[in-house]
Each structure stands twice: as C-alpha cells, then as structure tokens.
Amino acid sequence: MKLMTCPINGTRPIAEFSYGGALRVMPDPDTASDAEWSDYVFNRDNAPGIKREWWRHIPSNTWFIAERDTQKDVVLRTWLHEEDD
Amino acid sequence: MPWRLLRFAFSQKHPEPRMFARHEKLKPAYDVVIIGGGGHGLAAAYYLAREHGVTNVCVLEKGYIGGGNTGRNTTIIRSNYLTPEGVQFYDASVKLWQDLSADFDLNLFYANRGHFTLAHTDASLRTMRWRAEVNKHYGVDSELVGPEAVKKAAPMIDIDCGGHAPILGALYHAPGSVARHDAVAWGYGRGADRRGVEIHQKTEVLGIDTAGGKVKGVHTSKGHVAAPKVLCAVAGFTPRILKMLEIPSPIYIHPLQAMVSEPVKPFLDPILVSGSLHVYISQSARGELVMGASLDPYEAHSTRSSLEFVEGLTAEMLNMFPFLSNVRVMRQWAGMADMTPDFAPIMGKTPLEGFYLDSGWGTWGFKATPVAGKTMAHTLIHDTPHPLITGFALDRFRNYALTGEKGAASVGH
Predict the structure, then answer these.
(1) For the domain with range B112-175+252-339, which CATH number is right: 3.30.9.10, 1.10.3330.10, 3.40.50.1000, 3.40.630.30?
(2) How far does chain A reach from its first CA to its final CA, in angstroms?
C-alpha cells in the first residue's frame, strides 16, 4: 500500500488523500493580459520531474504541500503551506 | 494443430515474410520524420505514402511498434460524441475502420457489437438525449433506449445494479465496435513499410533542431537526421518533446489502467459503458472480459498498476454483473494518457514552422487512429489543418475557444 504523510495527522494510506494540482502563483486578474491569463488557466509544466503540489488529507480536510517525483511517483516531503520556505 | 503452423516447426528459415524491414542506419535526411511508432504515427506514415506519394519518411520509435497506448487501450471504436467537431471527426474514423482489414489484407478482428452508454441518473439521461440528437443531426446512428433494450441486449445484467444505481436508460450506438489493437499498428506499419517508409524501432529522440522559428532535424540515439517536417505523435510523452522545444501546452499526464479477466463462455455481445459507475466492459473473441475505469487521480509518468484500481473497478462491475464474483483477474496494465482541459485532442500546426502535433489523445485515441493518420498526413502536405481538425488546434486555449467534449469522451468525470 502506498503511503503519504500528512503534516498534521501523520502517515496514512494514499486513499485518504486527494490531489489538488501543481503549486502555482496566480497572476493578478485585474492586470493580467488575456494571453497571461489563458497561460495561467490552461498551460501546465507537464514533463516529469520533482514537483510541488497541493494535496488534501480528506478525513480532516487538511490542505498541504507535497514535493513529489512524478516519474517515480515517490513523495519526498510534505509540509503545511504556512510553513513554506 | 493447423498444417500451416507445422511449416514453422520444420523450416530452417522463417517461412513467412517479416511484417516490416529492419533498417540498421538512419539516412542523413528525410522529407518527413514522425516521432512515435504507435497507431497514430504509423497511420500518418501510411497515408502520407498511399495518398500523397511521400515515401521518404522515417518513423522513430523509442520502444517497439504499438508498445505504447496503441497496445494498452480497451479497443473500443465509436463516434457517439457530443460536439459537432467530435461527431464528424470520429464518424469519419468509423467509416475508415470498416474497410481497414481489406485495405491492409490483414484480419483486424473488427467486430461490430453495438455500444450502450448507460444512464443511472436523470442528469446523465439528459446528456444521452443531447448526444443522440447531435449524432442524428450528423447522420450517426445513435438513439436513446429504455432499460428493457439494455436487458434484452445483455440478459445477464442486473438492471437495478444492486438497487443503488438502477439503469434508467442508455444511449445506444449501433456502429460501436472492437478491433485487435496490435494488428492495427502492424497493418499500418506493414502498409507504410511496403510503400517505402522506414520504421526505426529502439530509436529515441533526444532533441530537435530548430533555426529561425523552423524545424531543421532531429537528434536521435542513432544519430542526427535532417527533416523540414516533423510530426510528434507520442501520446503520454508529448510534454517531454514539447519541453525540448519550450512550447507551452495544457496537456497533463495521468495513468489510465485496464485489466482482463480469465476467459469465460460468451455472455456479453455489446460493449457497455457506465459513466456513473466508472466502468466500461466488453467481452473479447477469446472470452476474456476487457475492463477499464476512470483515470488515476493524480499526475504520474509511469505505467505501474495499482491494487486500488482493481478493487474499485471490480466493486462497480459486480453491481452490474453479480455472477462474476468468482471470475479471476488475469492481467492488468496502464498507459500514460495525455489529457486536455476540454477532453478534445490537440492536432495540427504549432508555433514552430514544420513541427506538427498529434496529441491530447487522453483516453480516446485508439478509435481515432485511422482518421488522425489521414488528417495529419493532409495537414503535413498542405501545411494547413485538414477541415476535420480545425476545432482541435493548439491555439484554441489561448483564444478561449474550447471544444468541450467532456460529456462524451470517457468515464468518471
């Protein structure tokens, strides 16, 4: 069974977690051009690599950040967004 | 044992010709280089040679022919889509499929079974009616049927699905079919090879040469080749190729899994799909149940299988066919699906001149193999998108002009 570590609840089976997409910075919608906004809405860096992503521990509704190797599908570390470095 | 097979036992040499020639070396230059030796890439090579007389073509495949998503799908062919663009495009594909065995002189085991998309809720019934009307408008044989028609076509089904998700009706699509997927890659490969196309297996693309906004050639693990036109048809590897060129795209990769059961007596003629239960199922000519479900829930660039998938899929299957509880699972596998935000493919020209994309095939690519090959060959030759694929251009995202196919492209969303 695949495991993931929630920063609050500890190590739990992956079935307790949901994926929330890549951690990205939203451009200011009031100042972004149409091209910048469509780039933000649609385009993704989707080559394999080590990526920072939003994940959620479903039973406790805890959102946090995970660093994951998307080719090997290995979670390297997890932390709460507030603790971001 | 058939007598024909005995020849193989006693012959010193292989008594049948090979499907395609093996080329040791790449030529220094080709008119067209196709990256990806799956169904789509080989089909494009085939139609380039057959319909446009362009035979100085090289297909580069980093693994082996049809070893990617061409050999990993659940072989369903249909055209009951939701958007006008989708319906016309996939209908052209179904018409090509019907003649393909004769075109190739190779038996693809193309079997017209009929296809039911089951509705368990009023909302999905409404989408089915919508799809049926769009389909009929474009001359595609689809109709909304009641639960009794489903029960008649598949007598073993529990029409109430254990009581918690009763089947209220279905979209019936008579042309729905299955075909042997490996043979499709071999048929296109052999047809292209006989017309002079070179197929290079175990040849990986390492980089793409560009100058002045134009494509110049391709670096491979067997050396450099020059080419004014390059077609990228690599499904789940598309983001890696696009990264080499720094072309942004909305494609995201999730694994899609499938599995087959041990062979059982024939009991299921039609193909059944249930979006609510996240299941699609057909019975192969060998009696195995070929089953698939929705995408894996997060991005991953690998073809590993998971126990969660088998547990989830079999639980839903048993709602439809409780008597299968003792049937064993034989094999499971996965492919890397190149998903798009609107569930329509990304085909045609790119910002880089001479570089063409046949991608975004997510969970719906196998059925499109013939028409994708044909329209991409046309697009390469004329350097303008074929009329059937103008709705699938990469720049539709920048222009906020999406082709929303989510209601008809796959299950589980």
Answers:
(1) 3.30.9.10
(2) 30
